[in-house]
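Problem 3 from the worked examples.
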Amino acid sequence: MRARAASLAILLVLASQTAVRAQVGGGRPEDVATLDGILDAYYEVVSRPAGVPADRERDHWIHHPDALVAVPGAGSGGETVFRTMTLDEFHDLYGGAAEEPFYEWEVHRVVQRFGNVAHVWSTYVSSREPGGDPVDRGINSIQLIRDRDRWWITSWIFDQERAGNDIPAEFLPD
């Protein structure tokens, strides 16, 4: 009886993984084969010239279908507030064609990994042109899981550098 239950559990897991892969469809295998690849894609999908929307299809390829995005902000009394949302909700709010160009890239990374789970602290710089003068800096906290031959982003949140919220030295390039 235990062997049958174990076999059934394995079949259910494999079926759910196949269903997840079918939901997302094909994409660039190099984007999800390594942590470097998925983090490069993470920044490339949001970087774009004025008038061009974020690459939503590619972003779906690197995010698990159940991924969670959290966007922080400040409340009217200065308290920290945040909104959690799906990737589609994030794109509906922030992924459209922007009036100004937007480019963001990673300048430092701290990876903590155990088995198939990884957490990445990714320090970023934003600019109005590729490699240009920074207009913003911050840190992305990105959670990922490895499923056999690929990585998935399962969630992320960020915070921006501002007065009283300097990026700690351990999260900056040497």
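Problem 4, a separate protein:
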Amino acid sequence: MSSTIHLRARGLKQTYDLAGSHLHVLTGVDLDVAKGEVLFLRGASGAGKSTLLYILAGLEHPREGTVEFEEKQLFALKGDRQAVLRNQHMGFVFQSYFLLPELTALENVLLPAMIGGRQSKGNDSKARELLDRVGLSGRLDHLPSQLSGGEQQRVAIARALINDPSILFADEPTGNLDATTGAGIIDILLGLAREDGRTFVAVTHDPALAALGDRQLYLKDGHLV
């Protein structure tokens, strides 16, 4: 793990207006993530873990605060430039897979490359290689409906890596899986992150899972402890 700061957050605050009342989810979060670090964010249900992750990734805008990613101020970028940065430098794995049902496993993996304008034979080979790395070389032409939950999540992992991102974000990646399948998914995620030297930031409620990282932080009362 490098000592270079890959992701830096300062003074993050987030408030939601609900039926005339204010729900203060983040009340001042400061965070540095080193390049190549495996970091887990923990906290009680509703503590704001996913909100924090989405802000760090630029998927949600905070009420206050800044996020610096690879020396770029994330929220100072125009919408299209921010989207391009996410597409080219960030990978995402969510609890609910988000595979397109009409696309095969191979086509789902290729989707971020196609969105980024990187349609080439090289991407097809890379997608096949990634599916092989997650143990799905025999499922290339299967639709999501023909795959188990664990297999769908492995497709989602391969999709997250197709553009060779420097950082991988995961939001409760085992939340919809049984314990045995979930453990296998985590082995794959951590193995791929560490093998390729990627920064990995994940939300989890599982203390045993969080203990596998380089560091774990707990979100309580709107800030990290």
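Solution to problem 4. The radius of gyration is 17 Å. The beta strands are 5-18, 21-34, 38-43, 64-69, 72-73, 90-93, 167-171, 199-203, 215-220, 223-224.
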